[in-house]
């Protein structure tokens, strides 16, 4: 514990930071050097009281991991705590940059959901499977020496400018340092603001992992705690920057960045007051056929045209989802399957659906199944 002098000094600095603002405080050297995460002297991100268990998730040999975790459970450690430690170990090791790694992260929340619905004597099984996969991949990646996330100094946010747009511009410039510093400054505020600002950069492209990763990370905040919002969400910042570096930037590749804003303006979107009429099965079948067979540009125009007349037509998200999974659509789905070599398969979904998905994350998002911000009641709680 610190001395009385250190305590009073911290109180004084906190009052001064509150009065002059974060940006000025950073320039004066008064604000903490790291945003969101604790860190040790060499810039390594640490996680307070969970750190011993996080380290165990990284370092325990996989052939001894499950007995060790079962021993923790028998000694009284909650399953939720193990999931939290695994999520933080994953974030610190991979930083959203390892394909198998972030799939293990995204599997944690569903596994925990399943566990809570299972009988007590088998409740840990779905979680233990993902924890094993998580630690195995961490050690294949190189363990602690290969950690991607390091403590980051927050940048300065420009007054009067939307922080999400500032983050998006840093991502577009493919500047990892600037993007990380900008997001660290944003994350010094509320987790909700950090998440909403992050989505501005995420929504710059429709690639499925870019879209899903922040929602899975946000969902896990109910497990790891909102104080870890920066560590969990900055994975998406890094994913977006790496994605920008890897992608082509021709007119066709970047078309979505001009097309979607133009369509939103053209059709005066978004609107929030649907009508009462239902479209019927024939309309749903026609809509799905269009989505399966059209080009990206035609598909986007069609979706936004539908959204424009949504004031007269109520289309529940469940109707759109059902159109891709009900027996009436199963024939059309199967008829468009493509044979994929296991060497190029990027996800289980793409083994049975065309790529890119014509009725995937983007459509579900605009229909409301995937919330556009944290305040939506559609976000389930894992607590």
Note down, in words, how this protein is organized.
With 383 residues, the chain is mostly helical. Helix content is 60%, strand content 1%. It is built from 19 helices and two strands. Strands 1-2 form a two-stranded antiparallel ribbon. A hairpin with a 5-residue loop joins strand 1 (38-39) and strand 2 (45-46). Helix 1 (4-20) crosses helix 2 (22-28). It is globular.
Provide key terms for this protein.
globular, 1% strand, 383 residues, mainly alpha, 2 strands
Number of helices: 19
Q: What's the alpha carbon Rg, rounded to whole Å?
A: 23 Å
Uncertain regions: pLDDT < 50 for 5+ in a row? 20-37, 308-380
* CA(first)-CA(last) distance: 31 Å
Mean residue pLDDT: 75
The SS-based structural class is: mainly alpha
User: How is the largest sheet built, in terms of strand order?
Assistant: 1-2
Estimate the global geometry from the Cα principal axes.
Answer: globular
Based on DSSP secondary structure assignment, what is the total number of beta strands?
2
* H and E order: HHEEHHHHHHHHHHHHHHHHH
Helix content: 55-70%
Described by strand count, sense and barrel closure, the largest sheet is: 2 strands, antiparallel
Q: What is the beta-strand fraction? A: under 5%
